[in-house]
Amino acid sequence: MGLITDKAHHRLWCNFHVKEASITALVISQLIGIFIYSQFSDYEKRNYYYYLIPVVFVISTLIALFGHLIRVRALQYPFLIVNVSGLF
């Protein structure tokens, strides 16, 4: 019984971090989109760089998710905090 509860809690915890990472990546990609639109006055250049925003969104999602999962692992295994704390 305890094992099932632990698995459900772990799944809920991972889902929370996936959502948190996705929201972080969405905010980052929107800020980059605003920066691109403010920097380029030429319409063609703006549209060219605007296609990069979904790529930035995917990359930032992976980076944010990786960072959150490393934090979760560091909380589960405290001896890793020394190695991980300098990265994030």
Task: Describe the model.
This protein has helices at 2-39, 43-50, 53-76, 81-84. It is an all-alpha fold and 88 residues long. α1 (2-39) runs antiparallel to α3 (53-76). The radius of gyration is 18 Å and the shape is elongated. The model is unreliable at 80-88 (pLDDT under 50). Keywords: Membrane, Transmembrane, Transmembrane helix.
A few lines on this structure:
With about 90 residues, this protein is mainly alpha-helical. The chain is about 85% helix and about 0% strand.
Sequence of secondary-structure elements: HHHH
In round numbers, the mean pLDDT is 64
Percent strand:
under 5%
What is the global morphology? elongated
With helices defined by DSSP (H or I, 4 residues minimum), what is the helix count? 4
What's the quaternary structure here? single chain
Query: Roughly how much helix do the residues carry, as a percent range?
Result: over 70%
Residue ranges: pLDDT <50 for 5 or more in a row? 80-88
Radius of gyration: 18 Å
Q: What separation lies between the terminal Cα atoms?
A: 35 Å
Count of DSSP strands:
0
Total domain units: 1
Keywords: Membrane, Transmembrane, Transmembrane helix
Can you tag this structure with a few keywords?
disordered C terminus; membrane; 88 residues; mainly alpha; elongated
Chart the SSEs and their pairings.
Layout: H1 2-39, H2 43-50, H3 53-76, H4 81-84
Helix pairs in contact: 1-3
